[in-house]
Amino acid sequence: MIMRPETLISMNRIEIVVDEESLSDLLELCREAGVRGYTVIKQAGGLGSRGERRPDDYALEEKNAVVILACEEKQAERIIMSLRPKLKEFGGMCLISDCQWVIGPAASY
Amino acid sequence: MIMRPETLISMNRIEIVVDEESLSDLLELCREAGVRGYTVIKQAGGLGSRGERRPDDYALEEKNAVVILACEEKQAERIIMSLRPKLKEFGGMCLISDCQWVIGPAASY
Amino acid sequence: MIMRPETLISMNRIEIVVDEESLSDLLELCREAGVRGYTVIKQAGGLGSRGERRPDDYALEEKNAVVILACEEKQAERIIMSLRPKLKEFGGMCLISDCQWVIGPAASY
Amino acid sequence: MSISSLLVPAILFFALGMFACIIKSDLKFPPDMHKMIVIYLLIGIGLHGGKALATSNMGDALPAVWAALGFGVGLPIIAYIILRGIGRIDPLNAAAISAHYGSVSAGTYMTAVAFLGGIGVTYEAYPVIMLAIMESPAIMIGLVLAGYSRKIMGGAQKGEKGMMKHLMIEAFTNGSILLLFGSMAIGAAVSDTSYKKIEPFFETIFMGALCIFLADMGMEAGKRLSEFKKVGVFLVGFGVVMPLIGAFFGIMVGHYYLQYSIGGVTLVTVLAASCSYIAVPPAMRLAIPEANPSFYLTLSLGCTFPFNVVIGIPLYYAGAQYLAGQ
Amino acid sequence: MSISSLLVPAILFFALGMFACIIKSDLKFPPDMHKMIVIYLLIGIGLHGGKALATSNMGDALPAVWAALGFGVGLPIIAYIILRGIGRIDPLNAAAISAHYGSVSAGTYMTAVAFLGGIGVTYEAYPVIMLAIMESPAIMIGLVLAGYSRKIMGGAQKGEKGMMKHLMIEAFTNGSILLLFGSMAIGAAVSDTSYKKIEPFFETIFMGALCIFLADMGMEAGKRLSEFKKVGVFLVGFGVVMPLIGAFFGIMVGHYYLQYSIGGVTLVTVLAASCSYIAVPPAMRLAIPEANPSFYLTLSLGCTFPFNVVIGIPLYYAGAQYLAGQ
Amino acid sequence: MSISSLLVPAILFFALGMFACIIKSDLKFPPDMHKMIVIYLLIGIGLHGGKALATSNMGDALPAVWAALGFGVGLPIIAYIILRGIGRIDPLNAAAISAHYGSVSAGTYMTAVAFLGGIGVTYEAYPVIMLAIMESPAIMIGLVLAGYSRKIMGGAQKGEKGMMKHLMIEAFTNGSILLLFGSMAIGAAVSDTSYKKIEPFFETIFMGALCIFLADMGMEAGKRLSEFKKVGVFLVGFGVVMPLIGAFFGIMVGHYYLQYSIGGVTLVTVLAASCSYIAVPPAMRLAIPEANPSFYLTLSLGCTFPFNVVIGIPLYYAGAQYLAGQ
Ligand SMILES: Nc1ncnc2c1ncn2[C@@H]1O[C@H](COP(=O)(O)O)[C@@H](O)[C@H]1O
Ligand SMILES: Nc1ncnc2c1ncn2[C@@H]1O[C@H](COP(=O)(O)O)[C@@H](O)[C@H]1O
Ligand SMILES: Nc1ncnc2c1ncn2[C@@H]1O[C@H](COP(=O)(O)O)[C@@H](O)[C@H]1O
Ligand code: NA
Ligand code: NA
Ligand code: NA
């Protein structure tokens, strides 16, 4: 990346998929861990260890939610550590990767 | 990342965008390639080589689906190789990047 | 990645979250910056500097849109530079990360 | 009863929906439309039932309650024995499927009401109570059968107790059941003047809305046809035979124990013959995650529902006529 | 007026929705269903009002307009003074909450219409004009109060002017208001023959559709009950007392100034006592982003709306009867 | 025929929707609401048509079928010649636009029915058959014109055959067409007693539901107005002249060849003058991906539809009256 350092901040991007029913618990945990910003996409479907989940099935609607969360590395570690014990129960998945936050919008991480 | 290795597994994150009509073919291919987990977001729109696609247009509803898939590097390679011949037909895009799987939920990759 | 170079192209993945009302302005800016492909997911919710935004709240529907955009590094820089002055006004967030474009679908980046 | 009187619009719309699915038409109803119509129909049937019950003797309703509980408990056990004994279906799938057959299908019930209305046959007020009651015991029995299955399989009994309580609560707070009971209560409580004001919405246009519901159900059933291969010959056959077994008990109980009119017996038979696709599937998915949902959904939506709607209802009516000596 | 005549189906369905929420039922109506019913109800009430206005003297409507403007401006100021003076609520939250009480709730109005219809009481054509008018001035006053609040807080007045203009435009192009005014105009313009053709849809089945709307509102109100703790005792109390204050002015204006019949006075009182949850919340979120939305939404949907629907309407009617000397 | 009888509610609601869009109101109907109403209206019109056809001589319907096929084939060719010859529009866009004009707009048809109903004019049962038939041939001709265009452009003819077959299947399994045909069959098949039960839903409240549909169409049309600049003066003019050309053929065929009453001639004229926005756009998007969808959608929804609804229908009616010598 050749962009100047005042443009970008190195950060972590956390991406979590859980059942929609567990979403509010997850977000509660996130807020407790001091998260100041996240984005939620509902009505997702998927395949996992519990088989297929279809949000648009007629008789058996099972919906996932995708949570995307950008934060500084230290914060990411704290979040992961406080989420981990619950992740087993939530199921789904939790990914973490590197990214750059483009400075501009009000800092909410 | 200063987190301990028993917390994270290095993985690949594959992100595919196709027309909703091609989604079931794509997922069939994925399952044939041995994929054990994916997340699907429907009702997406976008711009691409075929012009704009609007999922909420009144007379011309065109919907994309976003598929997110975390898997081990070897598996990723296998998936990409078996998908590639069909990607041309599906259109859309297919991205691959590095990520870390946070250990906790049942392994579904 | 042990895949052969004719399979993958190094690229940047830009991910932007804004209010749905600002979406058309953002996409207009993107098109002006020469973007040839993007994917949009609407009906997202989230937390940020302006508090919580819930797309499914009964009396106060506030919706975010997630824009995902894959492009070459140079192009990414151009986009970021032309978006930055407006990002403050849009709010939300803008992330950029590295990824590989799997060659196959018509090039729309 | 001529052929043309069998051509109830609701059933023809069901056939149209199935046809659309078979010829791979792109016809598709918005999912929310279906949910809305179901809400509307449940309220409508509840209000109508409540109004009718308000003018009848509540004591006379008790036998209907016993019959409903009997079906809810007895039919799943019969189903389980058949599935295990004859079909050699694995215990947990057998338990999940069985639970569905103790429960009822409001859609089938309403189609039967439309059928009776179309040929001008009246019926008692009590079957609607059975409709509201039968969903819950079936879920309970499904859970008991699952526990039994796990025991004979020697598996762990993890958290059975907690699940039992959780599902019991769910069986009684289930939205559809609540809506049905609530509307029955409201129908019984309001004055005739008040009822008249909402009658045009909940009664006059009811039969038309039912047509759209059944067109959608037809498409849903049609979609499941393609899964017949996965489900296997035995289970598909079970999906046709089990409603007939349920119908046998239904018609006997309706005629000899409850002693209802031809219309009433037909409705009781339909209740016993039908199988749930609303409250039971999510409950079983939760209680028996090991079971394959495509088994019970295909049976319920792709097999038993179409059978009852197209063949069952006129058949049960003919049976009720026969027993009544007409 | 017997107890059973108080059991209007619409209100019972509201109670059912709230009950479902309290027992944590999974009952849920599709969000689009609610939006659709609101659209339908607004058009229905507009058409009906327009038709009634077409046959009445337009000059007689003027006092209603003045009353509406008076409520829209006066009630928020009273609310603001109470919130600041007694409750010590911070200025911006006080401004945001106040604005809601100058406005009206179409849902409460329609429930009152159903209530009057259920007991066979007639009413004037003019209150519906007030319904359409009152949303806009309340938003304006909210903005003025916010500006005043910001001044006493010594904060920056950034972009107040632009916001004012923006919100004024919004207040007059708001979808619900437009739908109401537009339908009134259409109801007034069309011939009787034409009106007869759309009457079955917009009038005959209106009361039934209102029941579903109120069941949904009941669930929405029920959801907000859990926020009472966050909102605090004073504000919850305010959510009950403020409608009574509004009602006092409403009944006085209705009886002495407008000199309407018992039914008309009841409707005017309901308008003054009710508080918005459609156009005002988004306007306040935009105009006063510093205010906490859960305050005004909990008050409006969880407190004042249920109070008016369950207790307020019969109370205001009794008051109107009393004033009329009956 | 007085001015006030021209003020059909349906058309006024269309104007309201357009007005809302022009003043940039935030009025918005849920997309699923529109889909639901379209499903409902198509079934309603199909049932009604089927019922009417059941009592008429099927042989007499044949000329209507020929006329429909003639319009479906002839009008796109005329449109193509005008677009290419006068407008110098590029061949593929010309082909895509032309196909739309061979087809029909069910919304315009229903508005015309509402218009005739509003002034108490009766009409034949056959035009509804034309409505159901005309969508398919137009798609076919569009494909033929596209093939021709590609040939004169010297481009590759890749997969034309496969596409042709694919689209033919689609033209006949299209959801809207299927719903219309299916409902016609059901309407014709069911007994009068059965039909009476669903009449309140599908007929009595039909005209009211149509109002909501047209309000939504008004907003949709309003949105497209902003694209007029992109589309250019010639095409906007074409969107007004082409329906008049279609109407000329329609009125001639309706009066001299089919010899229908004034109401029937009006409907035939409307069919010939209207242009599709349901089945044809997606078909053309698939068949001619090179064409710019905003051209044909703007013409169809923003230009021809509003023209027909507001000016066309009364004009065609006046024309039919004139020819009939009244
Ligand atoms: N490897 C994966 N890649 C992407 N999404 C996954 C993966 N594994 C699980 N998921 C998502 O997590 C949901 C629940 O997973 P599970 O708890 O394993 O059944 C699935 O329905 C998917 O949406
Ligand atoms: N460069 C890109 N970045 C993000 N999404 C893309 C990109 N190119 C294509 N897409 C997505 O893929 C869909 C189909 O693309 P196409 O097949 O090129 O028309 C588009 O509608 C977008 O949603
Ligand atoms: N750190 C973050 N991570 C993920 N999403 C964010 C973050 N900050 C803001 N957002 C998204 O951007 C939206 C608007 O943010 P804001 O303008 O800060 O209120 C939020 O509702 C979130 O959806
Ligand atoms: Na049963
Ligand atoms: Na008020
Ligand atoms: Na035409």
From TrEMBL, chains A, B, C:
Domain of life: Bacteria
InterPro entries: N-reg_PII (IPR002187), N-reg_PII-like_a/b (IPR011322), N-reg_PII/ATP_PRibTrfase_C (IPR015867)
UniProt-recorded name of the protein: Nitrogen regulatory protein P-II family
TrEMBL record, chains D, E, F:
Protein's name according to its UniProt entry: Sodium-dependent bicarbonate transport family permease
Keyword Transferase (UniProt): no
InterPro entries per record: Sbt_1
Superkingdom to which the source organism belongs: Bacteria
Species this protein is from: Nitrosospira multiformis
Keyword annotations of the record: Membrane, Transmembrane, Transmembrane helix
Keyword Transferase among UniProt keywords: no
Membrane-spanning parts: 6-25, 37-55, 61-83, 95-119, 125-146, 167-189, 201-219, 231-254, 260-283, 295-317
